[in-house]
Each structure stands twice: as C-alpha cells, then as structure tokens.
Amino acid sequence: MSRSEKNISGQNRREFLGKSCGAIGWAMMASWFEAARPGGFARAAEAAKAIGPHFPPKAKRVIYLHMVGGPSQMDLFDYKPKMGEWYDKDLPESVRMGQRLTTMSSGQARFPVVPSKYKFAQYGQSGMWISELLPHTAKMADDLCFIRSMNTEAINHEPAITMMQTGNQITGRPCLGAWVSHGLGSLNESLPTFVVLVAKSTNTEQVQAISARLWSAGYLSGEHAGVAFRSSGDPILFVNNPPGVPAEVRRRELDGLKALNEMNFQLVGDPETKTRIQQYELAYRMQSSVPDLTDLSKEPASTYALYGEEAKKPGTFAASALMARRMVERGVRFVQIYHNNWDTHANVSGRLPDQCRDVDQACWGLVQDLKQRGLLEETLVVWGGEFGRTIYSQGAISKENYGRDHHPRCFTMWMAGGGSKPGAVHGETDDFSYNVVKDPVRVRDFHATVLNLLGFDHERFTFRSQGLDQRLTGVEAASVIEELIA
C-alpha cells in the first residue's frame, strides 16, 4: 500500500468509506424521519398545494374536446383559395424550408399540393371562413374564439398529444385537468373533480392509442388524476357493491380500512395514504351520485333537438358532450372528451365527413345548451387536436380524394365561453397553410392563456418536485395571449 493511500488517521480510502457509509446512511435516515414524523410529509404536501386562484377567474370549469389524430385545418377552417392554382404542383422548397418529415411521407419523390375539395363560406360578424363539413359550427361562429396560428414542436402523435395535454413531450407530467384539479379543487364532494370520456367514432379506419397516461396526475397527488367513465356497464369499475354486500357492510368495511390507513399515515406520513382514504370515500359517495348523473332518460326532447339523435346512443361523441354538460352542471371541474380517428393519411373524402358528422351538431348543441342554462360564461370549452395536416398529398392524389400527413407548424383550435373572446379570429398562415405568418401561438402560450382564464399566473402556479418548482408551461418563456380574452 502506498503512502498516498493512507490518510492522517492511518486509514486507506477503502477503510474510510466503509466506516463512513453507515454514518451517511444514518444522517439520511434522520432527515427522512424528521420529514416523515407525524404531520411532516403532510405539512410539506400542504405547503406545495395551491390554495386557489391568484386573481378572480373568468372560468370556473373546463370542457376540453380533443380530436385525436390531428384535424385537417385547410379542409375545415383555414381557407386557401389560391391553392386551386397549385393542384398537383410541387410544394416550393421556399415554403417547406427543409421541414422534418414523418416516415409516412419522407420517402415520397415529390410533395404535390392538393387544395381542399370542400366549399367554404364566411360566417358571423368576424367573417370566419368555415367548411361546408361543419354547418352547425358555422352557425355559432360569433360564439367562438378561433386560433388559426397554433403550432407545436412535435411531429408524431405520442409526443404531440402528450405535449398538448401536459406541456411536455415526455410522459409522466401532470395533464392540464390535473393542474386545474390541484389548483381549484372540487365543486361536488360526491363526484370526481376531473372526469375523462373516450367517445366512439363512427369511422374506425385508423384509430390512435389512448391511454390513462394522458390524464395522469404525474408528480401531483394521485387524487388529481382523471377518472375515466365508461359508456357501457358500470360507468366506473367497482363503484357498486359486489352482489350480496349491503351498504351497511360496505360502510363498516370502509371504516375499518380508514382506521388502518390512518394508522399507517401516522407511522409513515406518506400523503398518498390520505389520497387513498379520500378515493375510498369518494367511491362510496359516488354510488348514489353517479347513477343519477348518467341517467339520461329524463332529458326532454328539446335536449336531443340540440345534440342530435346520436346523443341517445351511449358512447357516441354526442352522448359524451351531453354528459359533459350534466357533469359541469353538477360541479365537475374539468371534463375531457377524446374523439379518435382524425389521422387522415388517406381517404380524406371518405373519412373526414364521418368525423365532422360525429362532432359538429354535438359541439353546437353543447355550446347552446351551456349558454341557455347560464353556464357558458363560467365554462371554458376547448376544441382541437395535437397538430394539423399538410397541404401536400400523402399517397395517391386526385381532386376528389387525397391524404394528408402530420403538420406541426400550423393548425386551428377554438374556444368558447369562460372569458374567451367570442367572434375573435387570431393568427394567420401563409397561402399554403404551411407556416404561421402572423401572431403565432405555441402550446405553452395556449396553456398560459387557459390558466389565466382560470385565475392563475402560470409563472406562479408551481409544484415542488425533484427539487424544482415545476409548472405546466415549463421553463421556456410563455405568454398569455390577451387578444383571446374578452
């Protein structure tokens, strides 16, 4: 052993570290026990919790309608009449500017422009251009706030939808609904604060995967995760007592579980134990509240005149939209509806009309229903996908049918109610609906604006996790788009 390997105590490095690791471990355990002593973790959790909005909110509830797959903006909202002159001509490189392509179209020898086959007209005092595929949406143009300059960095579905829902392309973060639940809390102790509905699309040519990670609470308390309601069988799995188990037996069982969990909490101090207690109690209360919520039999004929006859069929988008109104009416804070199959790589003429029929009247009916019940003013309705579609055709091309690839550089979303500016049209794209040329809106700007409508300063709305003050809008600069706010 060399002299350099000895320290002043006559110990070599291996001996010193071997004896020190125990002390280091005890120091770590001591600090952990200090945090974990009765009330320690609970105090830390309470310190991290938001206590309400930073300023008076314009919106108190949100209904978020996500069109999974990416709706084609130039076939629905972004009218480009000059493209008629460009049919089957190559998209100029000066427009594409070396944009990253997906594997679906990167192997194409050329990128032929294909204009929309659908007719457009202007509606409302705003003069918003809307496709013939959305006649009911067109009727409420002055109720809506259109954003034609949305853009994102993600070009594939998984990162793009994760970005739109959580503010980050990497999974594991809390989604917007979880942040709203964390910040504003519950309006009804007998129903979840955040509910998710996955609607069935009429056309199922190319559906995307939809999983619970999209409504995860991430590093927030588990109680803020979305609760998925099913369209058949029990709305929520295991919400009802098993056969032969009366309510009083179930109540005694829950009381016993609560006592055990309270003992565990006093011993360990893990705040998720409190979350478990709350979830058991909420499930018990939902046994009486959920059947009333999901029973549509007492809805009058006037309701179905708004939403359409499809609203009578469980699981359809129309039925989900009607359910969303019933939920916010009863105090659910955030309702997320996913509608699949907007990924039109091919057969736009065969698929896009089906998609629009699924959602068009139901969206109009939802907005009108909320308005006539006095709920729209404080309920923010959001409609959009995770990105847009390309002006060039993917695959075979004809004037009557074509396909469109993913396009992150520009797409259209709309909002209604909840303090958003009705009749507004924000942002512009170039003649090819390819690049934003005026008033770009990034995903984090959109999130900052939604949080503002809910009464939150997005820079101050944080949660301490892994040593960082985490926030929905992340660490890059984000701006509230004032032009979208009434």
Describe the protein's architecture and organization.
Strands 1, 4, 5, 6, 7, 8, 11, 12 and 15 form a 9-stranded mixed sheet that branches. A two-stranded antiparallel sheet has the order 2-3. It contains 13 helices and 17 strands. The chain starts with 12 loop residues before the first helix and ends in a 16-residue tail after the last strand. Residues 1-9 and 23-48 have low confidence and may be disordered. It has helices at 13-36, 40-48, 73-76, 93-96, 135-139, 157-166, 176-184, 247-268, 271-294, 301-307, 317-329, 348-372, 443-453; strands spanning 61-67, 120-123, 128-131, 144-151, 194-199, 227-229, 334-339, 379-384, 388-393, 404-407, 411-416, 425-426, 428-429, 436-438, 441-442, 463-465, 468-470. Strand 2 (120-123) and strand 3 (128-131) form a beta hairpin. It is globular, with a radius of gyration of 26 Å. The protein folds into 2 domains: 3-36, no CATH class; 57-484, 3-Layer(aba) Sandwich (Alkaline Phosphatase, subunit A), CATH 3.40.720.
